[in-house]
Amino acid sequence: MQLKRRGLTSGGSPLILFMCQLIAALDVPLDPKILEGLQQPPTITHQSPKDYIIDPRENIVIQCEAKGKPTPRFSWTRNGTHFDTDKDSRVMMKPNSGTLVIDISTGGKPDAYEGIYQCSARNEHGTAVSNNIVIRQSRSPLWSKEKLQPYIVQEGSSLVLPCRPPVGLPPPIIFWMDNYFQRLPQSNRVSQGLNGDLYFSNLKVEDTRSDYICYARFNHTQTIQQKQPISVKVLSNSPVGERRPTFLVPTGQNSSKLVLRGEILKLECIAEGLPTPEIHWMKESGELPIKKTFYENFQKTLKIVAVTEADGGSYRCTAKNHLGLIHHTIKVTVKSAPHWINEPKNLILAPQETGILLCRANGNPKPSITWLMNGIPIENSPDDPSRNIGDDAIVFSDVQKDSSAVYQCNASNEYGYLLSNAFVNVLAVPPRILTAPNHLYQVIISRPALLDCLTFGSPVPKVQWFKDNHASVLDGEPYIVHGNGSLEIHVAQKADSGKYTCVGINELGKAENVVHLEVKESVRIIAQPEYRVVQKAGTVVFECRVKHDPSLELTITWLKDENSLPEDERFVVGKDSLTITDVTEVDEGTYTCIANTSLDKDIARAELTVVAATPTPPIIYDYPDPPSDLELTDEHERSIQLTWTPGEDNNSPIEKFIIEYEDGLHDPDVWHNLTEVPGQKTTAHLKLSPFVWYSFRVISVNKVGRSQPSSPSRQYQTPGAAPDENPIIVKGAGSEPDNFVITWEPLTGIQSNGPGLQYKVSWRQKDVNEEFTTIKVANVSKYIVSATPTFVPYEFYVQTINDFGPGPEPLIHVGHSGEDLPMVAPTNVRVHVENSTLAEVHWDAVPAKSVRGILKGYKIYYWKERSLNKRKRRNTGKSSLMFDKNKTHGKLPGLEPFSHYVLNVRAVNGKGDGPPSPDQHFETPEGVPGAPAFLKVTDPTLDSLTLEWSPPVHRNGILTGYTLRYQAINNTHKLGPLLELVIPANETSWTLKNLNYSTRYKFYFHAQTSKGPGSSLTEEGVTIMDEVRPSEPEFGIVNASPAEDFANISWEYWGPYKNFYIEYMVENSEEDWKKEFVNGTQFSFVIKGLVPGTQYKVRVVAKGVTDETVLQSAEGIFKTNPAMASRQVDIATQGWFIGLMCAIALLILVLLIICFIKRNKGGKYPVKEKEDAHADPEIQPMKEDDGTFGEYRSLESDTEDHKPLKGSRTPSNGTVKKEDSDDSLVDYGEGGEGQFNEDGSFIGQYSGKKEKETAEGNESSEAPSPVNAMNSFV
Q: Where are the transmembrane segments (predicted)?
């Protein structure tokens, strides 16, 4: 269709003036409340970005929101054709919205939904369209496999290590790190380029390393890809000498760069040379923009932000060292995507009115402008005789009601586009006033006054102003009526005070509004502070007397040296003065008095000089005398004025007066603080509450303290009134499934404002078309609405009422009736056993309507029914794990291998657990066994040793046998060859023959299942020869077996009976040795209360019983295990454990009674006899439950060394005494981190279990995540 452009192509000022007049006439403020009731074409209010990169792991949400009246309908196109959302079950459009949600969580492919999307919102008045939204899937591809050759280069030469990251969407962030996830240090010699490569201007020998690793971080998918490590070896046999700089990047003498307006410009120059060159930048065609220019990467990168066309030109970088310099010039060209000069604005026109849509944009190249109407190219739309189309404007004249439409302006060039919707809405609306009625304007005399009168109407109303009851229109001096309807008075005078009426008129009617103007007197300081000289410790008073308009509240503020007054009680601010007592040198300075009202202020200043004080006789200070002569004046319903005469201050100036009141009606004989006034005032204007019988008294306060209260004033009764406030802290929630409880904080007696206080409680079900149900209650703070549906929203409010009427309009609150337990259990529960200690559970979510409350999540209850090693059922107590409400699967960690488990799943809301799903049974597969319950060496002979053991407590499967490895240890504690022996699973002892006599052997012993070997126990034994005692007392081997928060110390000792004690301390600390005495004659002791993961020093001391001689062992070092997480199930809460403890306590009580009876008879009781006969080793604490996840088990090494503490030794003659107790450090070990050197200090971990100890499962730990480590650096 041939477009008509009448009157838009001719030049000249008449056309420009005509367009400006049109634009000005249509600049009308629109109140959303006004527009709510008007018909309106659609307007796009929210949409997704033009280039929308999606995360393939999440659902795709494409935003499109619009408003209009009637409510718009939405449709979409994809790649230019209609996109039928109903035909794709994965695509859902939100109700009352155009936003698309594409569900890919159940197997959908995100790349199948890539493309160009556009949303349309239409109603009967037009169609608005969104931008073209390009949907692309984010990608983080793997690095291509490549075999990297090591770089072997001479010292002093340059080198570039390529990164060449995979191309991702969006592009990745590049950084270089080493094998330990530490950032590689960079400097002006070594730095990373913009392309990610690592540049060495010259190499040094210390650059040699094999772990130069380039990482690419894809932020959108939160993944990191790693290139293969690059090895660099720098040789120094033929170093490269000093040389002039040359550029590594860019190459050549000139290059060019294209950048778009508004983007960030980055220019890079990296040079090689020796010494390392320095880089400098300049702009050949002008100065660098200082506020926008930044240097990065050790001056090698020039960055200019918010680029404009002025930033185009030639930039020169210079690389320089003492041997010479080199230049490179980069020509920067700035192009521009379109940007708005005049974006089209919505037009609201009356029939037969004229208007214009302007669409002007700039860019480089210059954008082309195209118009659409209701989403269709305007040349294909129906012809409209009221519309004239130009390149960048559409002029409407003599519009009709059917001229309403939405117009789209598209400004585009090769670098982008702009799309703007602007509607033309033809309405016939009588005038409406948008300015609040009866608004009060206050101005200072002789200053301008501006009275607002914002109007809305179609056609645009004409505004006229009238003063008081005069019929004449205000026009001409001193009045100015602005285009937006506001009335301005240049120089306001007292006579200008009064009532002003604005009237808006158009051909459909008129509207008017009344505002008020008050012209006030200005504030003036009539007695200003003056320069003062005062002696130290004296008192100074600065006067500041102010005259102001009595109807305005006056505030006087004092400053010292332009800052707030010091927080010091010596500074007293009075009504007309500032008093400073006990003056010091620091009080010198400038003091400023600022007199403020809500409309203006006045300022005055004065200096203070402090001089030395002359001696004065001592002054006696005392409490002030009470005030007297209380008088009530200026009586009003809500206020009164109280005056009094101060008592003597007794040489300490009165700092303040405290005014108290008694309510003779509601709270007689009780005095309450009402207010405080400064010590210089003797009058107070008091604000009162209705329906109170007031009596007042005044108390004086000085530095010494408070005076006695004055005599009470006469009683003043205020009349009653309707309440001023409603209850606060109003809440609504259900306590039962069928009720709704409304509570509030009741008003006090003084807040009631009158007799007959009641509360009007109103409620109704939300989103149901019904009126509020109302009830009035008194003397309560709670009301229960019964027989409510379960968990539905209610609107409610509480309003106060007394005999004088209701209180203010209350706020409407929203709450829910009570929850009930979920009705149904999760269905389709499936269990997938991942390994011997981990299972994953899946279930289907419960329907939302069955929750009957707020869904908190899902809880899995599970318990071990029996071990597959045993036929007998053994219920270990139920455990539970809670999962988020949005999850339909979860993992159960810490399961025991080779066991039969049962579980069920329940939905959980605020009321509690719902019904369980049917029990699911599953079995965990075999795992590696735990360590044998104990291992000990018995029956030593000259050439044989017998080993006895008990099978592991946690077999975790069917035992296939035991493996014993052993080796001899010579006198220097060196280890001999390691021998290995396989023992059948049904054996619990084994005798080793043909051993060397008088030789110490170390044994490593573990069980195994079909899944592999378990944890090892270690033990030592010695073949014997004729027993010979050492000639002198001495210590032998001292062992330490650390756990998490305790360690077992055992030792060998030869000599007469001694008292032993242990000394220990944290290594490298300044604390004193801690001492623990050993009970009896035993040769082991448990140190408790240690800090996990801490290294300690320890030694054993033997002290003579009679001669007080002291013998010390050598010092040893051990480290406690790191703290481990506890299991989900707390054993202390298990019923069987509580019952067992009660039985043990009862048994101990019976034994104590028997022992007490025997002791009184004078005989030895059996326990004592046993203690005398044998020194029992100290009972060890039970090992804590292992709460780590089974799938990440970390087993102790089978060949783990176990050597004595540093400094321990055997007797000098080489003989070894066979002790009564074979206990050693190994019996109590839990795999600590203590290590021994070959001379006896710690070198290895210990692992073992004492015979009487019941071991739990294997220790485990979780390896640190390299991705987490890398994220902490980037």
A: 1136-1157
**Phi and psi dihedrals of 1141, rounded to 5?**
-65, -40
Nearest to 1104 by CA among 1075, 1061, 1072: 1061
| Residue 1120 · residue 1080 · CB < 8 Å | no
Kindly provide the b/e burial profile for residues 1194-1231, where b requires at least 16 CB atoms within 10 angstroms of the residue's own CB.
ebbebebbbbbbbbbbbbeeebbbeeeebbbbbbbbbb
Cis peptide before 1181 (omega within 30 of 0): no
Query: Cα dist. 83→78, 116, 1062 in Å?
Result: 5, 11, 82
Predicted TM-score (pTM) above 0.90: no
pLDDT mean over 308-318? 93
The tokens for 144 are 């291509």
Q: Is the per-residue pLDDT at 154 higher than 80?
A: yes
- Preceding omega of 459 cis (within 30 degrees of 0): yes
Angle made by CA atoms 1214, 1216, 1221, in degrees to the nearest 5: 165
pLDDT band at 1255; cut points 50, 70, 90:
very low
State CA 619 to chain mean position distance.
60
Q: How distant is the alpha carbon of residue 535 from its chain centre?
A: 57
CA distance 486 to 107: 63
More confident position, 112 or 1115 = 112
Q: Please check whether residue 389 is in contact with residue 380, taking contact to mean a CB–CB distance below 8 angstroms.
A: no
Mean pLDDT (whole number) for 977-1006: 90
Q: How far is CA 668 from the centre of its chain?
A: 52
Q: Which residues pair with 684 in a beta bridge?
A: 642
Neighbours of 1122 (CB within 10 A): 12
pLDDT digits 0-9 by tens, 346-396 = 988 888 888 999 999 999 999 999 999 999 998 888 888 888 888 889 999
What is d(CA 261, CA 1185) in angstroms, rounded to the nearest whole number?
64
Strand locations in 1081-1216 (E): 1084-1088, 1095-1104, 1110-1112, 1116-1119
pLDDT tens digit string along 655-671? 999 999 999 888 899 99
> Is residue 1082 within 8 Å of 1221, Cβ to Cβ?
yes
Residue type for 54, please? I
